[in-house]
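Bench log, entry 3. Co-assembly request; chain sequences pasted below exactly as received.
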Amino acid sequence: MVSHAIGLFHDPESALHAAGQLKSAGFAQPEIMSPVPIHGVEEVLGPKKSVIKRFTFFGGIFGALGGFALAAGTAVMYLHPTGGRPIITIPPFLIISYEMTILCGILATVLGFLISARLPVFRERIYVPETAVDKFGVTVPCDSDEQFSDAERILEQAGAEEVRRLGDPS
Amino acid sequence: MSSEQKPMQYSDVNDDIVRSLVVTGRKYYITLAIAVTVMVTCFYFPWFYQLYYGIGAAGMNNPTVWGTYLASFIFWIGLSHSGTLLSCVLHITNSEWRKAMYRSAEAMTLFSLLVAVTMVMVHLGRPWFIHWAAPYPNQMELWPNFRSPLLFDVIAITTYLTGSLIFIYMGSIPDFAAVRDRTSGWRYHLYVLLSLGWRGTDTEWHRLGWAYTFLAVLIIPLAVSVHSIVSWDFAMSIVPGLHQTIFAPYFVVGAIYSGTAGIVTVMFVLRKYMNFEHFITKIHFDNLGKLLLLLSLLWSYINILELFTAWYGGTSTEYEQLRYKLTGYYSPLYWEMILFCAVAPLLLISKKIRTSFVPMLILSIVINIGMYTERFLIIATTLSRQYLPESWRLYTPSMVEISILVGSLAMFITLFLLFVKIFPSVSIYEVKETMPKPQKKNGDRSW
Amino acid sequence: MSFMDRFVSGWRKHRQAATDDDFDYAWTMSIDLDRCTGCGACVTACQAENNIPLVGEKELAGGREMQWIRIERYWEGEYPNAKLSFIPMMCQHCDSAPCETVCPVSATYHNQDGLNTQIYNRCIGTRSCAVYCPYEVRFFNYYDHHWPAPLDQQLNPDVTVREKGVMEKCTFCIQRIRQAKDHAKDEGRRVADGEVQPACVQTCPSEALVFGDRKDPNSNVSKSINDPRAYHVLGELNTRPSVVYLKKVDADVV
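Structure output for the full assembly:
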């Protein structure tokens, strides 16, 4: 039976320590759930890389080119000479381009965030509501009872106030 | 302050914020009822009358074809300017004091933008065709005119509205998750949807941190560009008094100025009526007061520049415009604006005033009255005095216009009242970050 | 032609500002202020030709008159030596029109005749064109206007009646220009000088107003705008108007 062990800690340092211990004991990647972002996770659980910056960058580039193309392309499709200006007027179209850079950059960032954080998820997952208030949780998947008791021992040694076993609802 | 006697716990923050959402007193309902009533009677009825009758219901006339509707539009756009912009700047510079106030400041941005967009609808002669200003393929094969400063506005405000909405939402996801666990009924289902299944894992926090920072970096240049573009609606014309290069920075400074004053007002109200004394303290008012002082000096400087260049340039039209502004029909309003926006804020030099709540409230309201006057004058004085003396004509707002102005304020208040019951109006996790971290308890086993 | 060539040639073409040479005609009006008596016949003719509503006394006092052409009057000096000068003012059909660039929905643009046109159906009523126009010759429909009987019987069928919330202005009687052009096209020729006249030109008793194509060097208007008295109102704004005024020669000054 696949289940998870979750240890609840009072302070972030102990939780980080426990996560490090679990990792070095050969468990699969432990996850830390916390009410606030905690610092120093990367030192313990290995560096994290996110693809969000690529999304932002390419979204922005797309917006810049697309914005200019939208303004210039539509101006050429239906000719409306105005104010004695050329059909393709560069300075005003650069303003459109600028705004579209930001719009597409923002939308791409959101998309990048959702993809890289694997959200949204509406099915039940391993979660303890206390971690949204004042507890720092450390979870690892446990394949067997022995693994769970190993995990429980490590968590309690690291100072867990409580260790729970949660069945994986999936 | 009670927090000095008993240090706040993480759980107190959750309790306080959830309480602010679910516990609703009679006062709240009464205020909401009044706000809705005022909104409907003062905004929607006159507006529907105007839709039926024509723009003639307003006081505009031939040379002065723009009036208070557009002044309100600039005012609301300006008021929107501090929220998200200030929040982004303070986020990037890692200012601790931002954390308790930024959610409501961003909400202010969002709602004033919504009201501003409504004011455009009110302003238009044929608002039922407003979609023609949007670029979409259509059977007429006709696209909007991308050379128009007004179309820059359409694009910029759409972007700004989208950006602010996303920014406030992204920052609230962890809070929706925290509130989700404590509520039931329709709220629970709403927060389940809004929190997207957030669990607060280390990966999620990491991604959120990056995405949030990128958004902040994108929104700062956006906010500056939005008000520059609003100023170009005026500055790109060849009307004396409007056709000025200083207008873009003038509008941006004015926008941040009135927006910051607006934040002070909102902070005061939240602190007083939502019992957020723990979160919104003298420090916030002190810092905002310093910012207001700086902005008022900047604003005065730009005003002096505007007068000086007009006087020194000395072309007949500019000079007449200057004379008219300082001594003409609208000059009492001009001097009122100077008193409210340039002289009165000098009181903020005193720390005693910056750290007392009621004087700050009064000053913030006075500043916004002055700033509304500024927007009105920009339109009224210049348009009523253009090149051909034959078409000089005064403009005074009609009752419909005044009523719609009052109604738009009620609309803003209504939106804000609904917001404080749905969004956690103080950021739970960021407030926690400002509190001392939980330390290892005595007697814990050592590692 | 490859895509790149088409792109480059299209780019070059559309980067060029339109000039008189690109127009079929360049309709121009000259107004001789020496001949103008300020009688106001042009105002009335325009009102009748273009279905311009009569707004009534109250609205006129409120500054919402509808006059595509108006006589501006300027008094100089005090009573015994008072001097009156007047100048008919209408849409100047500028080649660099500030009103055209500002319209977000392209409701006003420059057509192939060099006319500044207003498309009523496209207008959403931002009124920005009226703000940008330095001549104050754009008029906004603050209401739906009605013509009491029997005036509704005399509406010109060639001209639309404008709805509330729409901007309108002088068109140089575009309905007459269209007719003349159609007629000329049927006969395979260009519109001859004097063949088309806006209502105000047709009515002017002192022939102060002359209308024609300035691309035709022999037309009356071409001769008239080469007069040394010719000037543009607010010429310093560089809007390149198509209406040319001939200055009044003042006996006292000379």
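The beta strands of chain C are 27-32, 69-76, 83-90, 108-110, 116-118, 139-140, 167-168, 209-213, 230-231, 243-246. The interface with chain A takes residues 10-11, 14-18, 94-101, 103, 106, 108-110, 240 of chain C (CB under 8 Å).
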